[in-house]
Amino acid sequence: MDQDKDRLSIDAARLYYESDMSQQKIANELGISRPSVSRLLQYAKDRGFVQIKIIDPTERGLSLADELCQKYNLKTVKIANAPLNDNREIKKAIGLKAAEYLYDIVKDHDIIGVGWGSSLYQMAQDLRTKPVKDVQVVQLKGGISYSKLNTYAHEIVTLVARAFSTTGIFLPIPVMFDNIEVKRLVEHDKYVKNILDMGKRANIAIVTVGPASDESILFHLGYYINEKDRELLSQKAAGDLCSRFYDDDGKIVDEELDNRTVGIRLDEFQKKETRILVAGGKEKLRAIHAALKAGYMNVLITDQYTALALKEMN
């Protein structure tokens, strides 16, 4: 009796799952009622004759995000799906994902500190308007360039401020001075000091990192970085965060260069409630890994290619 029922349930299951027949058509073929077909299909599941496996395209991303959260002690990881593993597509994908995340978390009375760079500029362009009150948007480091290259510092602050119905607070000076004495004089200016202090008070910071190589925009903005500094950075630096070069353990590489840099210090940055890193791409992998490992960030927004590479890094 059970063997007959087993056989009949398997036949019904094959017709239903493999031949795409409706339950009514199966009933007609087997000479039984439609409710009997339904019961046979359930019986086939219960006995293990049928095993249904669901392939969720988002499951891998969620699992990978969870693994990176655990690996780097992060509170949130958002992984954007870039159609191609090239810098342009990666920046577009992570920029949009970062815009969605920032829109979701910003609330009344937040102070948002922003860095600069093309990934953040992409984010700022994608950011939707949100009706919030008393939000402030401040530049975390100087952004004036001595070359034709654009840091997008002004555009990023303007666009983010506009999205949250406020006016941006700019730091219209270079991020790096030729000598420490001039930098200290500038920092003691009342206007500059107030902006730097507001950057320290920001509860949300959203930044990117750069590689410590010729691909770094810092080497092409006309700032004074002598051959000795360049050699030291090329040998020891993993990347830069807020234009401060750090090694694979997150420690400042060149104290003299760091003392000439204007903007939030890494120890100040690390105290913020929400510290968002928006970065992806092979050339930034070492910089991302070191910044995360050092605990500078608690939110990562990246692409699937970078996320997979980070998972494999020691």
Automatic annotation (TrEMBL):
Q: What species was this sequence derived from? A: Mitsuokella multacida DSM 20544
* The entry's keywords: DNA-binding, Transcription, Transcription regulation
Q: What does the record give under GO molecular function?
A: carbohydrate binding; DNA binding
Homology family: Belongs to the SorC transcriptional regulatory family.
One Pfam family in the UniProt entry: Sugar-bind
Please report the stretch or stretches of sequence annotated as the Sugar-binding domain: 59-310
Q: Which domain of life is it from?
A: Bacteria
Q: Which InterPro entries match?
A: NagB/RpiA_transferase-like (IPR037171), SorC_transcr_regulators (IPR051054), Sugar-bd_dom_put (IPR007324), WH_DNA-bd_sf (IPR036390)
Can you name this protein? Deoxyribonucleoside regulator
